[in-house]
Amino acid sequence: MGKSLLEQLPGIVAAGKRQAAQILEQLEGRNRVTLQTRELVIPSKDTANFDLFRQAQQTEAGGDITSSGERLNRLIYGDNLLAMAALLAGDEETPSFRGKVDLIYIDPPFDSKADYRTSITLPGTKIDQKPTVLEQFAYSDTWSDGTASYLAMITPRLVLMRELLAETGSIFVHLDWHVGHYVKIVLDEIFGRENFTNDIVWWYYNKMQGNIKRFPSNHDMIMFYRKSSEFTFNPQKEQRDKPVRQIKRIWSSEKKAIVNAKDENGKVIYIDSTHRTVDDVWRLSMLQPADRTENLRFNTQKPETLLERIISATTDEGALVADFFIGSGTTAAVAERLGRRWIASDLGKPAAMITRKRLIDQDANPFLYQAIGDYQVEQARSTLGRSFRVGDLAKVVLDLFGALPLPPEDNVNGSLGRLPNSRTLVFADSPSKLTTISTLRRAQGYRDSKLGGFDKVTVLGWNFSAGIGQDIASLQDPKLEVLVIPPDLLDRLKKKGLDKLAGEVRFSSLQYLEAAVTSRKNVADGEELAVDLRNYILLSPEAINLDEKNRSALQKVMNDEPLTLIEYWAVDPDYDGEVFRSVWQDYRGNTENESDPLRVVTTAWLQLPRKEVPRRVCVRAVDVFGFESEVVVDGVEVDR
């Protein structure tokens, strides 16, 4: 008989603390984790608004985007363990956030029976996408060891959260009966029993009916801890259902106690009380299906009133709030509205996409959209060991693709292989590099020179440069194929092992966006730029986690109306090749630009300050599955 969970718990906590300690030790090393800025989002739902450019200039006043980076809010896509490591490490552009966060709220997944598949509505059809392995780990606790694995996941993350918290900071951990009591023990160990403040009951009076075997479940628990005895706390009041007549109480400096207030005649003073001090039972309604203003139909979404109370009670204006399991982005949205700074992170691409749209929709201040720099390298270190070599990983990728390695004397860093019974060369690029047009030309050279020459070369890449689709088209080489290595490959390797994955991994074709600048002309108060979306070619449908029925429905949409697959697109009219500054955005559901919620507008009209030099315009799009594409148009002149 195996050990009980109670017997396993000390070992789980010890292992989690060791894992966190190793991460903390590597913060200063050359292998430290970094954040890569994918987009500076300057929200604009009004496409003819000069204010957004003034806002962008104010954001960068006194220096460039990187030197002011600490002041910008940030939305981070990726494993929150790596995101927190990067925030703690800091870099030459952004100082460390160690001890800088005033409040952390997390609502980690806890329902082992939840089905977190994504339902995508397209014109004429609805597609159910199963989550990737990466997202399954984030959104459901269906790990092999159940609750033990859940506790092993949460422990090192809680240790890093404590490192991020200011000495006066607080943390709220939102759970329910599945794992809440076990996590309470872990929290006591990490934050100290003396810093436990409240076990808050969120009673959402959903009027759920019980059955003959048990009482209905109508509450969650939110555990409130402080980092130290110094803290910020603002008592909260809520309105009573009806006024209550009660004795007025005041502080007596003479008696050093709270006493009954009396008038000049010595009579006790009564007042009609319309509000009560909030206690540790919070009677706040869940989101209702009929709520069209706030409800984003995101599984486990929490109401803004809940976060308003937490943020208002434990922070002051200007404080920094963080959430590392953001879901639909409620914490960031409320922090923004209440004048707090925020950091929001999630491993699920749908969560990141919904949050970005939500913040744009509420006209948030400019914020950074970031990803884990060299994410695959970090995953490779986790899977293959910190001292892994790129050649080791290339061999794994070639094996999964079905290629045999070339002889050592002809094998560049172990990255070249050949398909059996074929004159096809295979080149597996490094996860620490971008696959660029130079990479493709090098692969062409290998094809023509290695072992007397090959008929074809297939390039397998992890990360691609902006405009790679354009580059592939410009080469006009039918003997060159470019495929995408699945981004969750290393997580799947860690979970299943190489042998079990053989034959299961699909390498997909690269998605490709077609867009053009159709006009640039001077107008009375500046200039006007028009950008058209022309076409979108999705990567191989076989690479998306769909069943056959849904894959067939997707293929029809791809053939009939490919632009309906675009979820979000943005334009940077002055792209510098490094930071994408989106000053115009549109997305499905933004009916202010287009009345059809299932389609984006296909022409962007930008009203810009006048410039006397050519513009370099970058268009970036994200499809409904979270895949990104870019087009860069250089040398855009004013129409003559």
Question: What this model shows, in words?
Answer:
This protein is 28% helix and 30% strand. The protein has 640 residues and is of the alpha/beta class. It folds into 3 domains: 5-34 and 74-231 and 299-372, Rossmann fold (3-Layer(aba) Sandwich), CATH 3.40.50; 378-508, no CATH class; 511-636, Immunoglobulin-like (Sandwich). The strands form 8 sheets. It has an 11-stranded mixed β-sheet, sandwiched between helices. A hairpin with a 4-residue loop joins strand 10 (249-252) and strand 11 (257-260). Mean pLDDT is 83; it is low at 47-70, 111-115 and 136-142. Keywords: Methyltransferase, S-adenosyl-L-methionine, Transferase. InterPro entries: DNA_methylase_N4/N6, DNA_methylase_N6_adenine_CS, N4/N6-MTase_EcoPI_Mod-like, SAM-dependent_MTases_sf.
Model regions low in confidence, pLDDT < 50 over at least 5 residues = 47-70, 111-115, 136-142
Indicate the mean pLDDT: 83
User: For the record, what CATH class of the largest domain applies?
Assistant: Alpha Beta
> How many β-strand runs?
32
Specify the helix fraction band.
Answer: 25-40%
Architecture per CATH nomenclature, i.e. the level-2 architecture of the largest domain: 3-Layer(aba) Sandwich
CATH fold-type name of the largest domain: Rossmann fold
Number of helices: 16
User: What is the alpha-carbon Rg in Å?
Assistant: 27 Å
Give the CATH superfamily of the largest domain.
Vaccinia Virus protein VP39
Q: How large is the share of residues in beta strands? A: 25-35%
Number of separate domains: 3
Keywords: Methyltransferase, S-adenosyl-L-methionine, Transferase
Protein name: DNA methyltransferase
InterPro entries: DNA_methylase_N4/N6, DNA_methylase_N6_adenine_CS, N4/N6-MTase_EcoPI_Mod-like, SAM-dependent_MTases_sf
GO molecular function: methyltransferase activity
